[in-house]
Amino acid sequence: MSNAAAPTGVRRSQFWALYLTRFAEGFGFITLITLLGTYINTLDPQATTVLGVTISAGFIIGMYTTGFTLAQTVAVVPLAWAGDRFDKRTVLLVVLGVGAGVYALFPLVDSSASFVLVRALQGFVVTGAGLMTLSLVGQIATGGTRADKIGKANAASFAASILGSLSAGGIYDAVGFGPIFAIISALMVAAWGVTWLVLDDDDTRVEGFPFSDLAVSRRILTMTTFRAQYAFAVTMVRTWVPIYVSTELAAGGLGVTGVAIGVTVTAEKATNMVGQLFTGRLSDAYGRSLFVFAGGGAYGLIAVAIPFATAIGTALGAGVTIPILGDLPPAYLPLVAFSGLLGVADSFREPASMALFADEGTDDGGVASSFGIRELVWRPGSVAGPLIAGWLMVEVSMAAVFYVGGAFAITGVLAFLAVLARDHGRGALTTW
User: Fold this and answer.
1) HSE-up of 109 (CA within 13 Å, CB side)?
2) Cβ proximity of 37 and 245 under 8 Å
3) CA-CA distance, 379 to 386, in Å (whole number)?
4) Which helix (H) or strand (E) holds 50?
5) d(Cα 167, Cα 262) in Å, to the nearest integer?
6) Average predicted confidence (pLDDT) for the chain
7) Quick check: 319 and 330 in contact, CB under 8 A?
8) 183-207 residue pLDDT tens
9) Which secondary-structure segment (H or E) carries 55?
10) Which of 189, 252, 334, 339 has minimal CB crowding within 10 Å?
11) Which residues, at least 6 apart from 52, have a Cβ–Cβ distance to it below 8 Å?
12) Residue 158: how many CA atoms within 13 Å on its side-chain side?
């Protein structure tokens, strides 16, 4: 195994090129999250029978997200291996080129089956762009600034999320799906051009299969105790907040307009974006495990509180009519506030978590593989979480989705704390 040293004196334009790519990836990802409830309403998934097996509507709804995450799971290892073995810049350019074509296919979707298929292709694009950009940021940043640079890259993604969620809802209300995806394809082409012009070739080369060594790293195994459970929490809660506000009242939702859906999603993205401009730097200075523990625990507690939005809104008289947003049920404004708090909580966890994985990959060789392991640990929860949430939504209640999702986050941080203290010492929470 060989690994060239990370370059010194990296031009700031290199980071900005990677931030633009994060922006393009984030814009495409959040557009689909924002419009997921709208697609559910439009395609109206129904229970069906295949080869004598009855597939429920809840399972099909879950596949709208699980098809995406299954494709991500399959793509992680080959993409991460290619990034470490060859030139990450070249891999990134290929992924961006494919992405431009994939997003152009979404206006052609006319059934649940075709939607799940194109979402799977999107999963490949999002995984590749995320792995390569974060690996390159982590590789070319110095150790003392790594979480700060990763936080800024994530902030670029969240800036796209804000613009994407607001514009997606508004454009859909005005003209439908087509123009939204034309914009995303154009962004992918622009990111390709800037990456090709500005980003230097990646000179690092890692022989062999670094996954095997990194998979048994004590630090990565410690993070896994938290991340494997937290994946259920975030996938369920983050996906079901816009579904909650957008699905019809008969299905347990709030049935608000596209713009109002965008505002809800934007609240979480905006607070996360602003937070990560600062929290990455703080975790570089004060210890990353503390930020993972505090952010993850707070996320779980806020998720459990979401079903009380109706009671809170009714008590406060929050059922109002607002220009552009329209008539809003009592639960809407408290839900927007909860969404913003979710973003605050996750802004503490995310750059610290990413920097821990980047540290291990940079030190031991194979930063893309380290991020690949991070992605793989996430996959079981991100695949099974939506299926569980879809079943809970249809068979139990909308509130049950948030209770169960929040519980996963809380048990995750408690397991993380226990393993951290056992394997790394009682002071590891503030020093690791």
Assistant:
1) 28
2) yes
3) 11
4) strand 48-50
5) 8
6) 84
7) yes
8) 999 999 999 999 999 988 877 767 6
9) strand 53-55
10) 189
11) none
12) 26
Query: Cβ–Cβ contacts within 10 Å for residue 77, how many?
Result: 16
Assigned token pair, 71 = 């494709």
**111-142 pLDDT, tens per residue?**
888 888 999 999 999 999 998 998 888 888 76
- 219-223, long-range: CB < 8 A, 24+ apart: 219/356, 219/359, 219/360, 219/432, 220/357, 220/360, 220/370, 220/373, 222/416, 222/419, 222/420, 222/423, 222/424, 223/292, 223/353, 223/356, 223/357, 223/374, 223/377, 223/416
Helix H or strand E segment including 390? helix 367-395
Distance linking the first and last C-alpha atoms of the chain = 27
Report residue 6's pLDDT band, with 50, 70 and 90 as the boundaries. Answer: very low
Q: What is the C-alpha to C-alpha distance for residues 195 and 92, in angstroms, rounded to an integer?
A: 8
- Which H, E and C letters describe 91-121, residue by residue? HHHHHHHHHHHHHHHHHHCCCHHHHHHHHHH
Per the structure block, which two tokens stand in for 260? Answer: 């109002």
State the amino acid at position 335 in one-letter form.
L
CA–CA separation, 372 vs 366, rounded Å? 10
Alpha-carbon span 245 to 37, nearest angstrom: 8
Task: Report the distance separating Cα 303 and Cα 298, nearest Å.
Answer: 9
Q: Indicate if the pLDDT at residue 230 is higher than 90.
A: yes
Calpha distance 154→350 (Å, rounded)? 9
How far is Cα 91 from Cα 121, in angstroms, rounded to an integer? 16
What residues pair up with 53 in beta bridges, in sequence order? 50
Phi-psi group of 321: left, alpha or beta (phi > 0 → left; psi -120 to 50 → alpha; rest → beta): beta
